[in-house]
Amino acid sequence: MLKILLVTLFLTPIVLLNCWITMTMSFLFLCLYWWLMGTNLGSLFFLELSFNAVSYILILLLVWLLILMLMSSYKLQYTLGSNMFLFLMFMLLLFLEMSFLTSDYLFFYIMFESSLIPTYLLILGWGYQPERMQASLYFLFYTLVASLPLLICFFVMYFDTGLLNMCYFSYYSYFSNSLFFIFLTMAFLVKMPMYFFHLWLPKAHVEAPIAGSMILAGILLKLGGYGLMRVLYINIYHMIILAPMIISVSMVGAVLTSFICLCQSDIKSLIAYSSVAHMGLVLGGVYSLYFWGWNGALIMMIAHGLASSGMFCLANMSYERINSRSLLLTRGMLSLFPSLSIWWFLLSAVNMASPPSLNLFGEISLINSLVSWSVWLMILISLISFFAAAYSLYLYSCSQHGVSINSVISSGPASLRELFLSFLHWMPLNLLIFFCWDWI
Questions:
Q1: Which phi and psi (to 5°) does residue 165 adopt?
Q2: Could you tell me the pTM of the whole model?
Q3: Ranges for the NADH:ubiquinone oxidoreductase chain 4 N-terminal domain (predicted)?
Q4: What DSSP state is assigned to residue 53?
């Protein structure tokens, strides 16, 4: 682990010197470094780290999104707290990288909780409205309160077995009661989030700056899915008992949040609720315990991380020009900013899982898994797929078509940076489908 940690720690001087361009290039080289290291996944070095294809792909997504976060927040380099912003990006990279690399449950918990602090400071320090105080507290306390039972469970496991190694528990189940299993998974259900535990997510997204929304939608929600994949095999027996309840709640919750999306007038709130709907499908795939379910959950997490991050970027570009996120005030953008409208269309199409996007392959895998688990879920899956297309079209048509408000003053066409940023979100979504067969 030290070998990998040193590569990340070498970025410290760049953070202290406040070099944004150099920091972006360093993240790009780090992304290339991880891409090349993927050719050696079967080595003993990676097996000792409990490093597998899931960790590898999520670390690649993390570094790629950090590059895009710096590109989207370039105006902050001229403000007073630019050094602090770069430092928070660096700490997020460090904590999340260690979360995906460690093979010890206690160290994973420490890194899992440590990633809350930079995100909390991002929302609190660079949020748009005074309500960011309430949103950041919602985010912090929801996650912390749900995580305390997880820590207690890890201590109980250690006192009983003397071990907290992930590789050990992947071969030997730890037998306990159903309440223990609920406490073990609750932190990750809140993090994803599962329906009924999702109230913090729309508030955090609406009040967070663009970088905060991107890291929340792109990585932190996926950290919940990754944690579930790591702890579910600790007690397979109780997992099978509780799976019908979890899958039913997550699928019904996905339908209900899709309804809520159609009632939203705030662009960021609509995208946030759509994340809950997509994560409901992912949760169902993970708890189905089928091969196609886990494979589809991983692919859907990657695809949703890129698609939702791109849509938050486009929402921020519109906000910078119109100073509003309301669908009532942003209509008619097709005539004002035609170059941005094409990216709204492409990313909305990806969000509704149109071919040849990565979302399509993920949804097909998840549908295959969930229908194999129970044929009756086909009704809910049909509703989720239909409403995903409905709220994506609703978002695109309401924001791009119609007559623009006379008081809206255009700030000029989209810059090359904004167009390139949109392309870097959309391009992997349509190219990775040709590589995802290697993940199976």
A1: -85, 130
A2: 0.91
A3: 1-98
A4: H
